[in-house]
């Protein structure tokens, strides 16, 4: 949901912090300010969580020495946090593992700040959508492989988020079913043709 009229610029609110500087550049450049775009809901209801996510993630990226922008919006009681800028690609990691770690850390930090846990998704440069599209294509290719071979197809171990994307992609398929097996980092998804 978009609601430009209720957006806030949390970085600008702390005016005076962005004065012109001279001399040597700082080793860890601060994350650039970006609007915190909020859903069309009362600011007092969702504002503190969005503000906390924006401020805490900017601080985290600054300590990591990353040049990036942070945009936060709120949709259906979930914080959607997007990292942009020249260093955003470095924050994804292999199969999104670095991004997942940042999401977990930021979620705990925000929960501690506001006193309650909440749903949150952290993205960087549209990676989550690209990853989901790739996994959906993979799901349909492997579904066909399972049907043609008549054998169960086992995928490599993957995160719970990735497994869920494939489960959802195939949940309406009548000729295959999906299930997970294994524990921890070795948990993987199986695509099972119905005749097996």
What share of residues are in beta strands? 15-25%
Helix content: 25-40%
Number of helices: 5
Mean pLDDT: 79
Q: How far apart are the termini?
A: 44 Å
Overall, the morphology is elongated
What is the topology, as strand order, of the major beta sheet? 1-2-3
pLDDT < 50 runs, ≥5 residues: 1-45
Largest sheet: 3 strands, mixed
Structural class given helices, strands, pairing? alpha+beta
User: Measured on Cα atoms, how large is the radius of gyration?
Assistant: 21 Å
Number of strands: 6
The run of helices and strands is HHEEHEHEHEE
Can you give keywords for this protein?
6 strands, 39% helix, 5 helices, 3-stranded mixed sheet, disordered N terminus, 196 residues, 3-stranded antiparallel sheet, alpha+beta, elongated
Protein described:
The protein has 196 residues and is α+β, with helices and mostly antiparallel strands. Helices cover 39% and strands 17% of the residues. It is built from 5 helices and 6 strands, in the order ααββαβαβαββ. The protein has helices at 10-13, 43-63, 97-114, 127-149, 160-170, and strands spanning 69-75, 78-84, 119-124, 153-154, 176-181, 188-193. It has a 3-stranded mixed β-sheet. Helix 3 links the parallel strand 2 and strand 3. Helix 4 crosses helix 5 (160-170). The longest helix is centred in the last third of the chain and has 23 residues, at 127-149. The protein is elongated, with a radius of gyration of 21 Å. Residues 1-45 have low confidence and may be disordered.
